[in-house]
Design a protein that fits this description.
Keywords: Membrane, Transmembrane, Transmembrane helix. The chain is mostly helical. The chain is built from five helices and no strands. The two termini are about 50 Å apart.
């Protein structure tokens, strides 16, 4: 039983007991009053005051309960609203990390399209550090707080794809030194093949993210 429900029952019980008490006194008074005795509180001012005070006490109890219940309902509403806002802010932050990681993952494909030198330049300029930071941010995010197994799986797929591209690039990019060099060509081909494979995984996982979070396409 909720606390407010218990309080409501207690207050109404007190009010009912009070009414029953005075009703019982009235019945006993009527039953055992001497013949000719006055049964209404009009004999003295003190009698009238006593009855007014009794009725006022009951009204005060009921009024205090109604005010307290209203305040309790308001406090409960405020608490639930605050929890809902906190949950939304947390999920927005989690989605931002996933979006950031996905965007950095797709930049490998854009960087490699002009050729091997473009890829190596972008890797040294931004991709290496930015992707590493995005992976670290993702790993610091408690996946169980995504509150949905489908979200966890989609996010993990994005992380796995980006990590795979990052690892293959890091292992081969230093071998890209000159055009028409067999080692350079082989290194660039290995990176390009991995980018092509994982880009499909990124796209598929992002579609799931967009549906699950109801976000706009990238």
């Amino acid at each position: 039983m909720k606390a407010t429900t218990a309080v409501r029952y207690c207050v109404w019980g007190i009010a009912l007991a009070s009414v029953s008490f005075f009703a019982t006194i009235g019945v006993v008074t009527v039953a055992f009053a001497p013949k000719g005795a006055a049964l209404t509180p009009t004999n003295t001012a003190s009698d009238i005051a006593a009855w007014i005070q009794a009725v006022g006490s009951i009204a005060a109890i009921i009024g205090a309960f109604l005010i307290g219940e209203r305040q309790a309902n308001r406090a409960r509403y405020d608490a639930e609203d605050a929890r809902a806002k906190d949950e939304k802010n947390k999920q927005d932050a989690q989605l931002a990390v996933i979006i950031l990681l996905h965007r950095f993952g797709t930049r490998f494909e854009a960087a490699s399209e002009p050729g091997m030198y473009s890829l190596r330049y972008e890797w040294e300029r931004t991709l290496k550090n930015n992707v590493r930071a995005a992976l670290t941010a993702f790993d610091a995010m408690p996946l169980h707080e995504l509150n949905c197994s489908a979200r966890v799986l989609a996010a993990a797929r994005i992380r796995s794809a980006v990590q795979s591209i990052y690892d293959v690039t890091a292992s081969n990019v230093e071998d890209i030194v000159a055009m028409s060099d067999p080692d350079s060509d082989a290194a660039f081909q290995a990176i390009s093949d991995e980018i092509e494979t994982q880009s499909l995984e990124l796209e598929d996982a992002w579609t799931d993210i967009a549906i699950l979070w109801k976000v706009l396409p990238k």
